[in-house]
Fold this protein.
Amino acid sequence: MQRPTPITPLTGTTDPDQPMSRRRFLARGGAAAIGASGTLAGLGCRREEEPEPIKVGILHSQTGTMAISETSLRDMELFAIEEINAAGGVLGRMLDPVVKDTRSRFDDLFPKRARELLVDEKVDVVFGCWTSSSRKAVQPVFEQHGGLLFYPLQYEGNECSPNIVYTGSLPNQQVLPAVDWLRSLSGGAKRRFFLVGSDYVFPWTLDHVIGTHLEATYPDTEIVGRAYRPFGHRDFETVVGEIVASGADVVINAINGDSNLHFYNELARQEVRASDIPVLATSIGEDELRGLLPEVVEGHLAAWNYFQSIETDRNHRFIEAFQKEHGEDRVISDPMESAYAAVYLWKIAAELAGRPDPVSVRAALAKNIQFEAPGGLISIDPRNQHAKKRCRVGRIRSDRQFDIVYEAPRMLTPDPFPQASFPGWRCDWTRGGLTEGAAVDVRP
């Protein structure tokens, strides 16, 4: 792991070949674009006394294999921005979202668009990414230019950057509690695990963490197989055949994007039922389930921190407000709730700091800020800028929602470097930052 550089003010040069995007102009709807006089701020007609808006970046794939998941994050972040603008903005200033489509191209377009947001648009913060490949591709850009990225996805850990705030969960807050539950009597006392995922760093690292956890905690458990396939892969006949032949009694699924549709359809085609070999997903939720027939997925499992089916008044109001804006057929998943919380956590930090720039916001993050999210209280651990979260396991119902079958009894403190998996590695920005241990190769 490369040691990240300290966060610094934004620097860079402007690329004259990058015009204002139409999406950026359209995203300024409502209070973000129209001043009290009714004139369009985007056309330079802002009244003299009206404060300059705060530019914020949104960096997601709206086309390509990851569009099935990332377009909903864009919608949720814009929804939160609209709420904030309707309530008066941040520090008395409207938020001006600049939206970039990265087209599911992790290695080239993600860092290019990130640089455009930081250098050309000079945004104060970026909300974005889904895959770990995209996050790792933009991390050096944020560290070079002193930007601040709020990353809303659960991920594999083994990372800690001063330029990233991680509002999703780590393995010790999502997958490892779910694995412990699967090993328990209430979870079926599973012993033979098959690990399947997309062929990139998140599933590789996750499988390493699961393997070391099982070895250290449950020596009678066996990993009976692993299979990785590229992004966008469609033919899972061989993989499902391997699962059946292995004698697995549970599958951990770390496939990302629309490949999940083909994986679950193939399970159904080969008559692999949840009652026989349940699949516990780490990257498929309510939003992705819209593309699958209920009879294909019913009974299978997912591990998240949030489910739309959480029965609280706060969550019901949240769902109603989002569906009123985007349609009654829309559903809300864990990454969407995390993306929503990320915008509000940034707002709280900016207002606490009295300034929206990355340096000031990061200083405010060290004060243990928190937000009452639809799924419960979320706070940022100042030591590593990851969120404290509660693990939940849900079983897919016939309506493609989840029955919550397990909930951790308490909020779980984020640990990017479980010592069983990454001995010697630690992160504490309040005490010197990153401590490096021996290099760990997670590649299969």
Residues 150 and 255 are 23 Å apart (CA to CA).
